[in-house]
User: Which sequence fits this backbone?
């Protein structure tokens, strides 16, 4: 059919792995909004969920780093991390190789991307799935945007990737949901872990929710690094979702800095306008 | 935001972002830890025959010692990406707070980060 749902959420491993150390009131409000995103996603009756992720050296390393890669398999597994560390049990996650192949083939006509027939999900995908498809019964198609190891794709290109992905989805008979997952400002896994630039995050979210493309692509990487840390490079996943919903705005369901989760925790839905 | 502000040196920072290529031996330190994180067979070899495993990577003596000793602070200072390093810390039994403290201690003991992505974060005023 077409794209039927689009949203974004955070994916930091602390969201599940260090859950007991967070302020219960803020944590539970965050969890409640993740569950609201799940309800909204399920209401659109998707056949498949595409996750735009920013993985962290689980499958892709500096020996062969794709700027963009899409999964091409009927089954994935995750988490690759220690189960107790992430507090998520290892499981098989269904894919849809046929739909992956059709989307990749369509997209290659307009933009370059790699594919992977083997993919072990890290927290960047497993934490969102833990909340959005807790039974792991909805087929998933993973997409990775390299946000970890520079040189990185440009923000303009990340937005354009979303535009092309949207056209590819709209050319398929299936009902397709899309969730982007990333930052926003954070300095994860460094001595500055837990630092969050709330003002920067809120300004970014205003640009994102209102889908102001010119302002979204205006950040330079040096500005992002200065104001939002190396974790801020993950805004590329948000920009891909914005590109896939160009012309529409969204709704911010939740935002709050949760330092022990090392990120400003975010849940938002973007309106999907049907052509 | 509690973080210290950066100095205004955007041109130099931009140059360094575009040229943030790892020194070759740091690449192999990270490659070893990346494979250790994701491949159970490499983990078995790590436990059973570490010397043999390390022999397959192009490492300096300091890098080899830091891995053998589980010196998270020194590995951080060498420039190992935290998204790789935090899993190695967990593998050798460090809790999250210990991991963060080890990186800070590493900077205290060995000075600023020497290579990799995090050198770009050091333009802030101390």
Assistant:
């Amino acid at each position: 059919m077409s794209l039927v749902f689009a949203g974004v959420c955070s994916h930091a491993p602390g969201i599940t792995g260090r859950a007991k150390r967070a302020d219960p009131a803020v944590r539970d409000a965050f969890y409640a909004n993740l569950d609201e995103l799940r309800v909204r996603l399920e209401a659109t009756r998707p056949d498949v969920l595409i996750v735009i992720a920013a993985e962290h050296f689980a499958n892709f390393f500096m020996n062969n780093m794709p700027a963009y890669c899409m999964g091409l398999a009927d089954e994935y597994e995750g988490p690759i991390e220690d189960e107790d560390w992430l507090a998520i049990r290892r499981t098989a996650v269904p894919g849809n190789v046929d739909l992956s192949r059709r989307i990749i083939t369509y997209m290659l006509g307009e933009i370059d991307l790699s594919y992977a027939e083997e993919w072990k999900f890290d927290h960047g995908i497993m934490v969102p799935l833990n909340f959005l498809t807790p039974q792991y019964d909805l087929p998933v198609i993973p997409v990775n945007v390299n946000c970890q190891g520079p040189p990185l794709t440009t923000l303009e290109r990340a937005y354009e990737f979303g535009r092309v992905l949207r056209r590819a989805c709209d050319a398929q008979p299936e009902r397709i949901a899309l969730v982007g997952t990333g930052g926003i400002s954070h300095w994860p896994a460094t001595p500055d872990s837990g630092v969050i630039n709330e003002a920067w995050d809120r300004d970014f979210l205003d640009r994102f929710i209102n889908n102001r493309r010119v302002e979204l692509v205006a950040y330079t990487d040096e500005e992002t690094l200065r104001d939002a840390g190396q974790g801020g490079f993950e805004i590329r996943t948000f920009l891909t979702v914005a590109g896939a919903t160009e012309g529409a705005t969204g709704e911010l369901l939740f935002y709050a800095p949760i330092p022990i989760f090392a990120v400003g925790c975010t849940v938002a839905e973007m309106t999907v306008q049907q052509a | 935001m509690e973080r210290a502000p950066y100095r205004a040196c955007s041109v130099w920072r931009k140059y360094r972002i575009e040229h943030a290529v790892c020194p070759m031996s740091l690449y192999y330190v990270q490659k070893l830890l990346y494979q250790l994180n994701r491949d159970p067979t490499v983990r078995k070899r790590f436990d059973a025959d570490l010397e043999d495993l390390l022999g397959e990577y192009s490492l300096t003596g300091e890098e080899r010692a830091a891995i053998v000793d589980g010196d998270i602070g020194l590995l951080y200072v060498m420039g190992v990406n935290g998204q790789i390093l935090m899993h190695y810390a967990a593998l050798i039994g460090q809790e999250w707070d210990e991991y963060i403290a080890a990186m800070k201690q590493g900077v205290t003991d060995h000075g600023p980060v020497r290579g990799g992505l995090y050198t770009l974060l050091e333009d802030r005023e101390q």
